[in-house]
Amino acid sequence: MTVEQTRRLQTRVGNRIEQVSFDRGFHSPQNQQQLSAIVPHVCLPKPGANQAAQQAAEASQEFHTARRRHAGIESAIGALQSGNGLKRCRDKTERGFARYLALAVLGRNLHTLGKLLIAQDHADVLAAYTKRRAA
After folding, report:
1. The total number of structural domains that make up the chain
2. 77 and 106 within one domain
3. How much of the chain exceeds pLDDT 90, in percent?
4. 29-35: long-range contacts (C-beta < 8 A, 24 or more apart)?
5. d(CA 33, CA 103)
6. What residues contact residue 99 under an 8 Å CB cut-off, 6+ apart?
7. Which residues in 44-123 belong to E strands, given as ranges?
């Protein structure tokens, strides 16, 4: 399934995807080989502490970069789910999932925009506080 979805996505965006990262549960030699044929840099960590340590020692710089980015993506997904009441997509169609995702992104953007507007007017208010560094 991951290979087919990656292939479809790569076709849809005109082969512009240069790096993909998956969770440990998706690793298999077959997935590794097929994904490598679709995307130049694949981060497909092996399950198990010993295998993961060996893979990390032998990994390329691209693998390490993708692995670090993976945590940021997981955090963004968690933020979309937690702050907007969107834990589970009950509509099982592709159109319903797209609507669910769009609502999650819209809700998160509204939260962020609201926080920025509050910070402009009242920087000392708790609602304006952020843990991110100033850009």
Report:
1. 2
2. no
3. 19
4. 31/2, 31/3, 34/3, 35/2, 35/3, 35/6
5. 35
6. 91
7. none
